[in-house]
Amino acid sequence: MGIYAEQIVPRILNVVCAMGEAKDLRRRVCEGLEGEVLEIGFGSGHNVPFYPRAVTRVSAIDPSDVGWKLAGKRVGASGTVVERRGLDGQSLPFADDTFDAALSTWTLCTIPDVDAALREVRRVLKPGGTLHFVEHGLAPDERVRRWQHRFDPMEQRVLDGCHLTRPIVDLLTSAGFTIAELDVFYEKGAPKTLGADSLGIAVSP
Question: Start and end of every Methyltransferase type domain (predicted)?
Answer without folding.
Answer: 38-132
